Request: fold
Amino acid sequence: MDSSGQFHVTSIVTKTDLRKSSIRATLAIWLVLRVAPLAAAGDDPAQLLFAMETAYARVGSYTARFVRQEVVDGALRPREEAFLKFQRPRLIYLRWVAGPPAGRQILFVPGRNDDRMLVREPGFFTGLATIVMAPDSARVLRESRHPVTDIGIGQLIELILDNARAARAAGELTVRDGGTVPGADGLERRLDLVLSRERDKGYYCHRLALSISADSGLPVRATVYDWDDRVVADYAYRELRLNPPLTRADFDAANPEYGFPAWRLAR
Reply:
C-alpha cells in the first residue's frame, strides 16, 4: 500500500507474468534442443530415415532394455525383455528379465569360441553347464526370427536401409511422416515405410512402423508388417544409454556377476 492507500497489485501481476513467460521460454528452448537431431535431417522424412546411419556412426557402445515379440512358424510368441550390452564391432551380452527365457544369459564375442555364443540357462540342472552354440542354430531359430547376432540398433538400421534403398531405386518406397510425439523415453518421430505393395519382390516385409529418438536420431522401435498387413514382429530399445564406460569384464564369461559355469557343453 502506498501513501494514497492503494495496493501495488499491478507490479505483483507483472512479476508473476514475467515468471510464467520465463518458464514458457525455457520449455520452448528445451523442446527445440530435444528435436534438434530431427530438424537437422530436414523436413523430408526420407532424409530423416537415411540420417540414422550418421547418428549411429557416433556410437561405440550402448546399453538398453531390448523388448521383442515375434511370430515364429506362424505362432505369436510371448513378449520378451532382456538387458542388453553392446560394443562394436559386435560384442553382445544379454540377460533376459521377462518372458519365457527369464534368467537366461547369452554372451557373444566375435573371434572367440569359434564364433559361437555362450548360453547360461536358469535352473539348477540346466544351469550346471555353459552351453556353446552357433548364434544361428536351429534351437535359436525355433524361438526367434533372427540369429542372436542380428540383435542391435546397428543391425536394425542396416536391415531397414538395405530394404529402403532397394525400394527407392525401384520407385516403390513410400515414407509417411507421423510427426513428433511423446514416447516411452522421450520425444520420438514416427515414420511409416511402405517398401512394396506386391509380394515376392525380395523385401524383408511389406511395411515398417518406426519410432526414431529425437535425442539421438536412432531407431528405438520397429514394428514389422507382412503383406496381409499383419504384425509379425515388434522390436524396441528402451532406456537407451549411449557410449557408457563398458570394459572387457562386461564381455567376459569369467565375470563373477554372470556366473557362467566352467563346464561347457557344445550343442
Q: What stands out?
A: The two ends are 87 Å apart (CA to CA). The first strand starts at residue 61 and ends at 72. Residues 1-18, 25-37 have pLDDT under 50 and may be disordered.
